[in-house]
Design brief:
Elements (H helix, E strand, L loop, with lengths): L7 E5 H11 L13 H17 L3 E5 L7 H6 L8 E3 L7 E2 L8 H12 L2 E3 L6 H11 L4 E4 L15 E8 L3 E5 L1 H8 L3 H11 L14 H11 L2 H8 L8 H9 L1 H11 L21 H11 L2 H12 L1
Parallel strand pairs: 1-2, 1-6, 2-5, 6-7
Antiparallel strand pairs: 3-4, 7-8
Helix pairs in contact: 1-2, 2-4, 2-13, 4-12, 7-8, 7-11, 8-9
Length: 309
């Protein structure tokens, strides 16, 4: 994968189509009565994002494996509560609303026909694809996601920010280092350590018992990073309460593996894809067929008009 120049926008596709699904009425249906609220909602999202932020390059990043085995081996509880069906030889099936599952292949087909790059890599989550694109970018990066885990990539010096949907995509929180320090007391680099210390029930991460978000932020401010905190546990003169020292010491097995689980990968073997914003559809015939079959109407037309302008 070549380095990417120009303003790059990375979409956490699953995060956005889940939001579209829950934010757009299920009464939005194809001619055959199949719900297409997630499809049309995502197209409206992309249209608004391109209009408002004018990226030079755009990639929809996919979960080829939403619960990679290498993460589960390190922390077995990782996303375990979201498993609908286990598959020993491949990715587990995620619990997804029945009427959303059939819409995902439609979303993928529409993105492909429009010509928006769509990248998922076997054995990795979309977060890892985003992390690798970000690491290789030579210009500014806008990461669009409803997943706060990606705050760890925020980097003012490199022009990397997270656009976090507060309400749809019409209201986005532009997350930079100043906002992170104000809300969490850490910068982008420190957010992963904060997350693994406090834990995250939505991802099945236990965290360190008794170390909440505020305490984690204080410890990171005092000792710099996770390594500094663990060094302080071994230093009787370090400013830790007896209970903090005990809890952190007991959590060493978890803290030894949690960084690899929580930190997004930046070395995913990305395919060589064309990331430039498409001006015209890549496959007009396929797109016309998809539009008719699924009743994509104004949502698709608005996006095509925006891309062509």
């Amino acid at each position: 994968m070549r380095n990417v120049t120009g303003r790059l926008m990375l979409l956490d596709a699953a995060s956005l189509y889940f939001r579209a699904y829950f934010g757009v009425p299920e009464s939005i249906k194809a001619p055959d009565g199949t719900p297409v609220n997630a499809v049309r909602g995502l197209l409206d999202f992309v249209d608004r994002l391109v209009k408002d932020h004018r990226p030079d390059r755009l990639v929809a990043c996919m979960d080829a494996d939403w619960r990679p085995h290498w993460r589960v081996e390190l922390i077995p509880s990782y996303k375990a509560h979201r498993v609908a069906e286990e598959h020993p030889g491949g990715p587990d099936t995620e619990e997804v609303p029945d009427t959303l599952t059939p819409q995902v292949p439609v979303i993928e087909a529409v993105l492909d026909a429009v010509g928006i790059a769509r990248v998922g890599v076997e054995g990795y989550e979309a977060d890892d694809v985003i992390g690798t694109f970000t690491a290789r970018a030579d210009g500014p990066v806008d990461i669009v996601t409803g997943d706060r885990d990606l705050y760890q990539l925020v980097d003012d010096a490199r022009g990397v920010r997270v656009l976090y949907p507060v309400k749809g995509v019409g209201t986005l929180q532009a997350t930079d280092e100043a906002l992170l320090r104000e809300k969490y007391g850490v910068d982008g680099r420190g957010y992963a350590d904060l997350a693994l210390l406090r834990g995250d029930p939505s991802d099945g991460l236990p965290g360190v018992p008794g170390i909440g978000e505020k305490t984690a932020a204080v410890l990171l401010d005092r000792f710099g990073d996770l390594a500094g905190i663990l060094a302080a546990v071994d230093d009787p003169k370090a400013k830790l309460t007896p209970s903090q020292r005990k809890r952190l010491d007991e959590a060493r097995p978890y803290l030894a593996v949690a960084p690899k689980v929580v930190r997004v990968a930046d070395d995913v073997p990305l395919p060589d894809v064309e990331t430039a914003l498409p001006r015209t559809p890549r496959d007009p015939a396929a797109l016309q067929e998809l539009a008719a079959r699924w009743g994509l109407g104004g949502s698709l037309q608005r996006l095509l008009t925006t891309l062509g302008s």
